[in-house]
Write a structure and sequence with these properties.
The chain has helices at about 5-20, 25-30, 50-65; strands spanning about 35-40, 45-50, 75-80, 85-89. The chain has 3 helices and 4 strands. A hairpin with a 6-residue loop joins strand 1 (about 35-40) and strand 2 (about 45-50). It is globular and about 40 Å long. With about 90 residues, it is an alpha+beta fold. The strands form 2 sheets. It has a two-stranded antiparallel sheet with strand order 1-2. A two-stranded antiparallel ribbon has the order 3-4.
Length: about 90
């Protein structure tokens, strides 16, 4: 998978988070494999799978900031030395 293809995989999630609402939850499950490791900065930490990411990070933020939106200024994608593919969004 090329970096461009990896970015295309997460594109539906990026569109869903542009203006986050409760309907965005499905995009997290649709993009992440059930066993995907999602690493966030403190205080959130790590989550396994899109549902856990939504429940542990995005839903609490949405409750605190009902008008939340996400505008990524930089997007990166690549492959680690061990062969793992990643996308930074």
């Amino acid at each position: 998978m090329t970096p461009g293809e990896a970015r295309a995989v997460v594109a539906p999630l990026a569109r869903a988070l542009y203006d986050v609402d409760a309907g965005s939850k499905g995009a997290t499950s649709g993009v992440f494999a059930p066993d995907a490791l999602i690493r966030l900065a403190h205080p959130f930490g790590d989550f396994v799978g899109g549902a856990a990411f939504w429940d542990g990070a995005l839903a609490p933020l949405l409750r605190a900031m009902p008008d939340m939106e996400r505008r990524p200024p930089i997007e990166l994608a690549g492959q680690a030395a061990d062969g793992a593919r990643w996308v930074g969004h």
